[in-house]
Please model this.
Amino acid sequence: MSKKLSNTTYAVLGLLSFGEALSGYEVRKWAESLRFFYWSPAQSQIYSELKKLEKLGLVSAEFVPQSGKPDKRLYKINADGHAAFSEWVNDAPLEPTVLKHSLALRLFFGHAAEPERLRELLADYAQTVEEALGQLAIVEEFTQHTPGFSFPALVAEWGRRYYEAERDTTAVMLERLDED
Amino acid sequence: MSKKLSNTTYAVLGLLSFGEALSGYEVRKWAESLRFFYWSPAQSQIYSELKKLEKLGLVSAEFVPQSGKPDKRLYKINADGHAAFSEWVNDAPLEPTVLKHSLALRLFFGHAAEPERLRELLADYAQTVEEALGQLAIVEEFTQHTPGFSFPALVAEWGRRYYEAERDTTAVMLERLDED
DNA sequence: GCCAGCATGTAAGGAGTTACATGATTAT
DNA sequence: ATAATCATGTAACTCCTTACATGCTGGC
Model:
């Protein structure tokens, strides 16, 4: 049917598929919550994705003059957009998960590191994992109690389980380093 | 010190840091085993990374004439390369993990999907997880019994734990979909 | 008085992929 | 016969990031 768009393009379209008209700025804020399981594109990319979607006729833009701030552009998904989005969710082939785990990469090459430094890196990582768990707890709580967010709630649970596993594994890795 | 190189560049340098001289083709094969926790760059990129490393003076290349095949270039890390690599492993700031989980992204937008299709996607994913676990079991077995591969063995364990968590979570997600 | 938040956009460039090209050898 | 393995490389392109530019409002 339509030429393939990137997952990122669909992610932006998907954020509009909840029905509300959003400005680029607002899309960006919502997109940040995707970072736990996808990743958050740069601000400039979100604006260009929105323009692309408009050119494709999947969303329409409405000007909202602002006083003091630049004019706001409110983007709203239309019928074609809904159709294209459903087609993607249902029919697109499942792409492999991409994991770029910098710490695992460096641990893999641990022979070139000072052992003490490796422990420090793992400890740092453990802390960022805790932070992510804290933020996810808020997201999970919110999505579970907000009608229409049952799917985001599922994904928040997925994220929580992922970070819990990371927490456990980090602890195991620290133990393994002490074994030798 | 030296200008920042990408993680991918260091990953290639790291594969050479085990000491053996490798051709681009061989680097590529080793790089494939990184895909469980990092990702495997395209063939063409590996060749260009190797050229970059040579230009930077971190590896040296030796021509090995072949009969029938294109001449082989054997790349070997040198002292500068070892130094630069250790510096990266020890001192580089820890970059955040990047996770691009296409299935989670689509589940997030599950309101636009047919419920039956979502179950199919999860079932598909469960299978690729099982395959990854099978391959990782082989890697883990091999690295645990090969001297000098204790760090890769740790990372293989990390990978196994990650995929085990994914298996569990996929099952939970399927249950959740049946609850409603 | 200053910083955070609102609000959009451009330019330059790096990182990475896909597709193509070539061709002998070995295993099925 | 034909597919897989060995072996390297280029060209075109997309995706995405970084850095910059602008400027008002509201809270501390």
Q: What stands out?
A: Chain A touches chain B through 62 residues (CB under 8 Å). Residues 4 and 92 of chain A are 9 Å apart (CA to CA). The longest helix of chain A spans residues 115-144.
